[in-house]
Amino acid sequence: MNDVLYRCTETLEEGLLSAEPSQLGFFPRTTSSDPAHEDEKARERAKLEIEEGILKLETLMEGAVDKNFDRLEIWSLRNVLCLPRDEKIEGWLRLKHYEVRPTPTVLPEKPH
Predict the structure, then answer these.
(1) Do residues 13 and 51 make contact, with C-beta atoms less than 8 angstroms apart?
(2) Is 110 in a helix, a strand, or coil?
(3) Is residue 107 part of a domain?
(4) How far apart are CA 17 and CA 7, in angstroms?
(5) What distance, in Å, lies between the first and last C-alpha atoms of the chain?
(6) Could you give the 3-state DSSP secondary structure of residue 101?
(7) What secondary structure does DSSP assign to the chain, as a single string?
(8) Is the separation of the CB atoms in 18 and 43 below 8 Å?
(9) Helix or strand or coil: residue 111?
């Protein structure tokens, strides 16, 4: 799933980088007497903004995919593999890839 995500963001980045900076709102500043230099600076600003934005988008999408795959994994364990709902795992379940994280010291109380 992450491969599809990376291919999508890579394609989006390539598309944005191939566009003219002025189409994306990066206009050359008219304070310089060298328009070619200002065009190059606008292109650099656009490239930096695109790279940072794609990285942020990728991070958000990875988090969403991970969260929803964790939900699917827990649902599958409980409903497909019929994992019992005993008191030890009620409300939460520690998956193998989370064993390195510390266990919470206080568990929430069960509603009566």
Answers:
(1) yes
(2) coil
(3) no
(4) 15
(5) 40
(6) coil
(7) -HHHHHHHHHHHHHHHHHS-GGGGT-PPPTTSS-HHHHHHHHHHHHHHHHHHHHHHHHHHHHHHHHHHHHHHHHHIIIIIS-----TTTTT----GGGTTSPPPSSPPPPP-
(8) no
(9) coil
**41 in a domain, yes or no?**
yes
Q: What's the domain range around 77?
A: 2-98
- pLDDT class for 12, splitting at 50, 70, 90? very high
In a domain, 109, yes or no: no
Report if residue 110 sits inside a domain: no
Q: How many domains does the chain have?
A: 1
pTM (predicted TM-score): 0.60
Distance, CA of 8 to CA of 58 (rounded, Å): 9
Question: Are 38 and 32 a contacting pair, CB within 8 Å?
Answer: yes
Per-residue pLDDT reduced to its tens digit, 38-86:
888 888 999 999 999 999 999 999 999 999 988 888 888 778 776 666 5
